[in-house]
Amino acid sequence: MQYFFFVGVVCIIISGISVGAWTTSQQQRATFNTETTAFRRSRTKIAIYSGFLGILSLAISGMMYLKNTI
């Protein structure tokens, strides 16, 4: 159960870093203006896949927790 929780949290953090969720508006603007379209697409793809994996892992962890408490 703890494995899925930690994997979920790490994947959500990776997703946030990839999409630039924890940056200021000036940093986001600078990144957007200096990166290529191909790199932006690959970064977004990484963010979507890791976010989905993180949500799935957290859901599995939650279901395992509920199963053990009931």
TrEMBL record:
Keywords: Membrane, Transmembrane, Transmembrane helix. The chain crosses the membrane at residues 6-25, 46-66. Pfam families: DUF5316. This is Uncharacterized protein.
